[in-house]
Design goal:
Layout (H helix, E strand, L loop, with lengths): L8 H8 L3 H9 L6 H14 L5 H8 L4 E6 L5 H16 L3 E6 L4 H13 L4 E5 L6 H16 L3 E5 L8 E5 L1 H14 L5 E5 L5 H16 L4 E6 L4 H14 L5 E4 L2 H13 L9 E3 L16 E3 L2 H13 L9 E4 L2 E3 L9
Helix pairs in contact: 1-2, 1-3, 2-3, 2-6, 5-12, 6-7, 8-9, 10-11
Keywords: DNA-binding, Transcription, Transcription regulation
GO molecular function: DNA binding
Protein name: LacI family DNA-binding transcriptional regulator
């Protein structure tokens, strides 16, 4: 059992056998919950001597000046770049930003939305891929619908199929297709892909766009390895490709962070980039310009995306009309790609 001095909401949810979001709704009184579930949560909270976080309670009183930002992982330069834009825009409006990382846990994302509802945040921003998961879609709708009906504001970055809210939409599919065409123009015909988690819309769009552009030229992707959107994921994925025998002249990593890990793995195995194999990524996070060699990528204006999603969340006008602002990616060819040997 958890130390009573450090009991968390997750401890209560686990003890009651319910989701984190359900426990949050019961203890914060933000929505109706089945009586049997409510009884279990309240009994578990009593048994564990759970006390709501005093800091969170204080934030409730400042709710009109609070914006909640939920991202997958703020340590990822993609998300930190967008968060910087959000915070800059918030500072101009004297707003407090609450930032949470879900680590791509769909249940945790829903729970955080529930917590922000309880704290009556002025707006909620979801930064990052939607989940290709019907259960997540239904659970998120349960949380967001009453919040929106009560006048709350929600805006998202990236594709969330089921959320009919204002959206900053990076054109991931189009950007990946443009990158594929640029690599084809260099003469490449044999490709491998380091893909992220298949349940994320960003992965579906980037891998799909890349495949479609190659197919239009009569070329197929030979090898695909899935892994986490991280430096370690890229390293492990590239290592797996090398272990099975890399049969490609160009490796496409669906994020720059994965490409950084892939570069390290290639070097450890004695392969030169781009002489032995070309390498490309996606996002144009700042560090990739300083790699040796600098990384070919699809550039997205990350801080601008943060500023724009904040503006959408706080905009006036009709709340019944969804606005989508599309963000085009720009292919940047650098020294990590060259024509095949």
């Amino acid at each position: 059992m958890a130390d009573r001095a450090h009991v968390t909401l997750r401890d209560v949810a686990t003890a009651a056998g319910v989701s984190l979001a359900t426990a949050s709704r019961v203890l914060n009184g933000t929505a109706k919950v089945r009586e049997d579930l409510r009884d279990r949560v309240e009994a578990a909270a009593s048994e564990l001597a759970y006390t709501p976080n005093a800091h969170a309670q204080a934030l409730v009183r400042a709710s009109n000046e609070t914006v909640g930002v939920i991202c997958h992982d703020v340590s990822d330069p993609y998300f930190s770049g967008i968060a910087r834009g959000v915070m800059r825009a918030a500072a101009q409006r004297d707003l407090l930003v609450m930032l949470a990382s879900t680590f791509r846990d769909s249940a945790r994302e829903v729970a955080y939305v529930s917590m922000l509802r309880a704290q009556r945040a002025r707006a909620i921003l979801l930064i990052g891929s939607g989940f290709e998961d019907r259960r997540w879609e239904r659970a998120m709708d349960v949380e967001l619908r009453p919040y929106l009906n009560a006048g709350g504001r929600v805006a998202v970055v990236s594709r969330h199929r089921s959320l009919r809210v204002d959206t900053v939409l990076p054109e991931n599919r189009e950007g990946a297709a443009a990158l594929a065409r640029a690599l084809l123009a260099l003469g490449h015909r044999r490709f491998a892909v380091l893909s992220g988690p298949p349940g994320l819309s960003t992965v579906v769009d980037r891998v799909g766009g890349f495949r479609d552009a190659l197919a239009a030229a009569g070329v197929s992707v030979g090898q695909v390895v899935e892994g986490p959107f991280s430096r370690e994921g890229g390293y492990a994925g590239a290592s797996a490709l090398l272990d099975r025998g890399l049969d490609a002249t160009c490796l496409f990593a669906t994020t720059d962070v994965m490409a950084v890990g892939a570069l390290a793995a290639l070097r450890e195995r004695g392969l030169r980039v781009p002489e032995d194999v070309s390498l490309a990524g996606f996002d144009d996070i700042p560090v990739v310009r300083d790699l040796t060699p600098p990384l070919t990528t699809v550039a997205l204006p990350l801080e601008e995306m943060g500023e724009r999603v904040m503006a959408l969340a706080l905009r006036g006008g009709s709340r019944g009309r969804r606005r989508i602002e599309r963000i085009a990616g720009r292919v940047v060819l650098r020294a990590s790609t060259a024509g095949p040997s």
